[in-house]
Amino acid sequence: MLDPWANQLVEYxxxxxxxxxxxxxxxxxxxxxxxxxxxxxGIVFAHRDLDKFLxxxxxxxxxxxxxxxxxxxxxxxxSKMTADEMIYFQKEFGAxxxxxxxxxxxxxxxxxxxxxxxxxxxxxxxxxxxxxxxxKNAYIWRQSQEVRVMNMAYLFSKRVTDAALRALxxxxxxxxxxxxxxxxxxxxxxQHPDFxxxxxxxxxxxxxxxxxxRMTRDIAAKEGLVLPSSTYHVYAKSLSGEQKMSKRDPLGxxxxxxxxxxxxxKIMRAFTGGRATVEEQRKKxxxxxxxxxxxxxxxxxxxxxxxKEMERRCLCGEVLCGEDKEMVAEKVCxxxxxxxxxKKKMVKKxxxxxEVGE
Amino acid sequence: MLDPWANQLVEYxxxxxxxxxxxxxxxxxxxxxxxxxxxxxGIVFAHRDLDKFLxxxxxxxxxxxxxxxxxxxxxxxxSKMTADEMIYFQKEFGAxxxxxxxxxxxxxxxxxxxxxxxxxxxxxxxxxxxxxxxxKNAYIWRQSQEVRVMNMAYLFSKRVTDAALRALxxxxxxxxxxxxxxxxxxxxxxQHPDFxxxxxxxxxxxxxxxxxxRMTRDIAAKEGLVLPSSTYHVYAKSLSGEQKMSKRDPLGxxxxxxxxxxxxxKIMRAFTGGRATVEEQRKKxxxxxxxxxxxxxxxxxxxxxxxKEMERRCLCGEVLCGEDKEMVAEKVCxxxxxxxxxKKKMVKKxxxxxEVGE
Lengths: 358, 358
What we know:
Radius of gyration of chain A: 21 Å
Order of helices and strands of chain A: HEHHEHEHEHHEHHHEHEHHHHHH
CATH architecture of the largest domain in chain A: 3-Layer(aba) Sandwich
Number of helices of chain A: 17
Largest interface: A-B, 29 and 29 residues
Distance between the termini of chain A: 46 Å
Shape of chain A: globular
CATH class of the largest domain in chain A: Alpha Beta
CATH superfamily of the largest domain in chain A: HUPs
Oligomer: homodimer
Structural class of chain A: alpha/beta
Mean pLDDT of chain A: 91
Largest sheet of chain A: 7 strands, mixed
């Protein structure tokens, strides 16, 4: 059983056997022109019905990409990963972005008032815009104000049996089932008649969110809608190397709002794939698969050529962890400075879109 | 356990012992100036915190009365009873009426589309207006359009444990819990900041609806709101004398939209308290407590003097059932004609209030 509310790493291998996810394979990759980091660096490693989404696109049909955020904190690198995917699919496939701001959930789960949530929502959306979201091909809503989603959640609650919910999520409190049904409403909103009805919608998620996808696909089938497609990204590990990057573990998390100084400190203390001794590392090279600093470089901050060079120098023991940390920290700080400048210019626009502020 | 979704008569006596309802007693009655039929004829027989509601009113505080309807059919005498209560409390205590039109529930449970539901809603509301509702001191909403109720239902779902829901309602499908939480939202809407915040709200219900009241009172306590008060009316029996009058049993039900001819037929076939033989009835009088025709007269159609006379003549065997049926049918037909004329004039107003139609 996958638990979308736990904060655990999923064993990827089980996903393919037990849950029927498909690997991203050559047949799929061939159909994607510009692979970007998302497909070019293995950020997305599995999918459901991505082929059907691509087919719809190839036939010139309107497609959409859907995701959401709980506005209870600033963006971190985990949220950036989903944002990058949304923006990639918008650019690469012309997909209309549907973006749910789960302010009710932030209130109910984290005690973030709708007003505070509104502030985080503006900040999160300004990040999205600074990362490249084109708001002209997007629909962005706050959960507390989108009656269509709530109506769908209500209707779905009558279509889904308790047995089905328990099989998917285990024995949970009703509030979590309620959240899940609301998320089904979010995911199916792009197929609401007000948005042109049935269409192929891609939902980029982490593997732990797959129960929501399965439930929503069941509901879509019952409602005569197109089953949403999904892609699954690897987790951004915590900087400590232990768990997935999460807002619940602030020290292991790099926020897009961190000052360059703070970011540098976090990276200099991050977990790497260094060996027990310098000699061993010079001889065997670093254990790059375990290295969080390498992951930052790969998922977010280095260009192809730079990344190749980093891999080479690490694996042959030419460069040790300290030096790579310096190099990556430099890149991160540069990026953060530029991003934060871009973001500043986007705040007014974000407020306008969300109708928050004056 | 009371089941608000079953269609059974509740044993009234159990309510006081097991569920903590209080009888309407002299102390309460003394505080009500104009008792009307509601309190004068025992239509309301029990309450929770009615004394607190009266006290708030006596102190000159703003008070409200709340109820709702599932717009899946025309009004019948059961719906009229609740409507009469709403209108009585509005008139007698200056209570603002909050009236929920549960169109989503009508769709989810009965397959009534929102459009059809909109038509029944107009008809139901026109009935309310014809019965005397003052729309200037009322807030009327359709479930599908009132995002505040949905937001509250969402939040409440995180505050209520499964154990509490099961203790109240038994093991049910999640859709029913969802409905219950939405009803809690409806009942607490009058205390939303947009309506001036905390206040005493009276909810007139049938006894089978008490689980909703108990749950809502629990939630109100957790949310720091005033615990809603409630009154409990006796059931309008089915014309067959067997079950409570319900939309699910059309032949036993008198609709406010019935033509006088149909209404007359239904009454002439109704169950009475007649004895096995004419002799026995002449000698012992009728069993008036079992008589549905007497109930119609008492709850809806006869003035005090007429009712006293009906009782006297029945109980001493002076008049037999056939004659009383004729007399009551005549009253009902007269009333229906007048009501239907009044209602016709209210349709446009109802459309305007609900923003339905052109």
